[in-house]
Amino acid sequence: MTQQEILSYHNLEVHPFSKEIKTEDLMELPTMEKSAGELRLLLETKGIGLLTGPSGCGKSSLIRRTASQLNPGLYQPFYLCHTSLATGEFYQALSAALGLPAQGRRNSLFRQIKDHIAGLNDQKRIHPVIFIDEAHALSTETLKEIRMLTNFDYDSKNACTLLLCGHPELRQKLALNIYASLANNITYSIRMDPLPAEETFNFIEGRISKIGGQPGLFTRNALKLIHDYSGGILRSTSSAAWQSLIKAAELRSPQVEKEHVHMVLER
């Protein structure tokens, strides 16, 4: 079956679990909202933040939504995810993200980045917010230098907010003595948890409803099995739910039953 045939069979307008869900359509689930509130507090506090959670739990989606909601007259967001790099290459990638020339020696790039951040603050009255995704892959040397990127006016000024976002291993890494300087300067730390069962159910049902689907397309037992399998991880939940929709359509079933989910998970 084609994707359009599957959607038509279930009376759905578009793919309900695509990674291309519009920012404004992201579900405001309590677990996500709790993390979003903590991230807003970081922006008010400024400085260095830490956001960790299991792969696929929605960290990047949270960053995307937060960036889209920033007042452009007060903040300018920058996003970087090319983090498994040597420090010089990291500065090149960060310079490019800031819209600066990405060529030059490491020290020159460092100074260029610092001057640009200072200029945004002092001349344009704009506070830069730098989101560094997949930060658990940063090298030891780069992690140790990140602290210096936020040091302005003899460390008396929060000229930018920098969020390190990554897997839980990043938090474990920062507990080591060699990262004490960075860890001691983290102003706000956020742990992003998987969804509890009811929120997983609400996420699936909410996505179906959002695009014109009928209530009860997934039976309660099917929803429970999807949650048991995914553990509340959004990416795994979305994948299992979509594959189960496909299986139900193939078998001409009006609902996604527990048996359809079983068939998908046993592949």
CATH class category of the largest domain: Alpha Beta
Order of helices and strands: HHEHEHHEHEHHEHHHH
Spatial extent as radius of gyration: 22 Å
Oligomeric form: single chain
Strand order of the largest sheet: 2-3-4-1-5
Any guess at the CATH architecture of the largest domain? 3-Layer(aba) Sandwich
Integer average pLDDT: 91
Biggest sheet, in brief? 5 strands, parallel
List how many beta strands DSSP finds: 5
Give the low-confidence spans.
none
CATH homologous superfamily identity of the largest domain: P-loop containing nucleotide triphosphate hydrolases
What is the CATH topology of the largest domain? Rossmann fold
The tally of helices reads: 12
Note the overall shape: elongated
What is the helix fraction of residues, given as a range? 40-55%
Description of the molecule:
This protein folds into 2 domains: about 5-15 and about 195-265, Helicase, Ruva Protein, domain 3, CATH 1.10.8.60; about 30-190, P-loop containing nucleotide triphosphate hydrolases (Rossmann fold), CATH 3.40.50.300. Helices cover about 50% and strands about 10% of the residues. It has helices at about 5-10, 30-45, 60-70, 85-95, 105-120, 140-150, 170-175, 180-185, 195-210, 220-230, 235-250, 260-265; strands spanning about 45-50, 75-80, 125-130, 160-165, 185-190. Strand 3, helix 6 and strand 4 form a beta-alpha-beta unit. The longest helix is centred in the middle third of the chain and has 17 residues, at about 105-120. The model has no long low-confidence stretch (mean pLDDT about 90).
